[in-house]
Specification:
single chain, 125 residues, Beta-Lactamase, 7-stranded antiparallel sheet, 7 strands, 34% helix, PFN, actin monomer binding, PFN_euk
């Protein structure tokens, strides 16, 4: 399956995220739909997994929007803005990003992104 197919079918296609992307550990976008990272955001996202204190204190930027970080560790970063938010999950080679709005429960978005990340980790990605 291509990276774009994972974004289209396993993330956005579930209806539990409205936008998604997969980026490499270098911050470059591998695939995306309804989500566009601005210059430098990918690298800052990847760095947030190494330096959780920076994203906990300064928030996380995705698609030009700042999100209040509500969880950050070396595997997951969750951000909130109003009733929407973002779920970022690191795998061995990539970072999955899911964006949800007020019509989607945060837990639904989190489950979809975390499950795909688990699958990719189990398969060496």
């Amino acid at each position: 399956m291509s990276w774009q197919a994972y974004v289209d079918d396993q993330l956005v296609g579930t209806g539990h995220v409205i936008g998604a992307a997969i980026i490499g550990h270098d911050g470059n976008v591998w695939a995306s739909k309804n989500l566009s990272l601005k210059a430098g955001e990918g690298a800052k996202i990847v760095n947030g997994f190494k330096d959780s204190a920076s994203v906990l204190s300064g928030g996380i930027f995705v698609d030009g929007q700042k999100y209040l970080t509500i969880k950050a560790d070396d595997k997951s970063i969750y951000g909130k803005k109003g009733a929407g938010g973002v779920v970022l999950v690191k795998t061995g080679q990539s970072v999955l990003i899911g964006h949800y709005n007020e019509t989607i429960q945060p837990g639904q978005a989190t489950t979809v992104v975390e499950k795909l990340a688990d699958y990719l980790r189990e398969n060496g990605y």
